[in-house]
Each structure stands twice: as C-alpha cells, then as structure tokens.
Amino acid sequence: MTPADLDRALEQYHRAANEFAVGNPEPVKALWSHADDVIVANPFGPAVRGWDRVSEALDFASSRFSDGEVTGTETLAKYETVDLATIHEIERWKARVSGGKEVESFDLRVTSTFRREEEDWKLVHRHADPIATPHPLGPLRGSS
Q1: How far is CA 1 from CA 9, 96, 103, in A?
Q2: Adjacent-strand bridge partners of 85
Q3: Cα–Cα distance for residue pair 135/5, rounded to 1 Å
Q4: Total Cβ atoms within 10 A of residue 128
Q5: What is the reported pLDDT for 144?
C-alpha cells in the first residue's frame, strides 16, 4: 500500500461524513474495522469499544444530525507507518443538531486511526469533540 491509498481512504471517509451529517451512518460504518478493539468517542456519549457498541454509537450520533454537510477539513498532522496511520484534523460542519430549528455551523477536532486490514485501510479509532478553539480559561474550566 502507498501513501496514496491512505489518501483515498481519507477522501472516502470525508465523502461518507456528508451522509452522516444528514442522518445516514452506513457509508461511515462501511469504512470501519469490525474488530473487537475498535473505539469511538464522540460528543453524544462516552467512549465505547468493540464493533457492536461502536456501530450503535455511530447510529445514535448520526440520528442527531439532519440537513447537514461537512464543508471542509484541515489536516493538522498525519503519521503513517506500513500498517497504521493517525490523522488529526479540524472538520467544519453545518447541520441541524438534535432536532434544532436552525442549521448551525460548528467545528470538530478529530483524531482518527486507520489500520491496514488485508488490502484496505479501516478506521479503528475516532475521537471527535467540539473543542476546536482555545478558551481563555483553559480546557479545564470548571464550574463557576
């Protein structure tokens, strides 16, 4: 496999994310490994491990979106070995979230890890959260 193969896998994921943003998780789920060691952590729930739980978490998260699209991605770092790659990106989204009345714009910072399985790159880890810009009080703001 070549770096171009990983780039193609990332392009596929970015296209699939547009389907996710309208409530269809299936194209994203097709890019995941179905192994017991996969992990997803997203803003809609705790981190979960194992394909069955990851699949359920992806279904739930995509059900929270409608009328959306990923309007852009900014790759901040990409680390690739023969069998493993980790990418850190900022994803720019527009979507109606959790039944909201308005389509909102928001950014997610995302770390994704892909593993080579047979001749394909499969997603094995994704952590996404909405903390894409610094806060003057720091990340651990506490309650006041």
Answers
A1: 11, 38, 39
A2: 80, 114
A3: 37
A4: 19
A5: 47
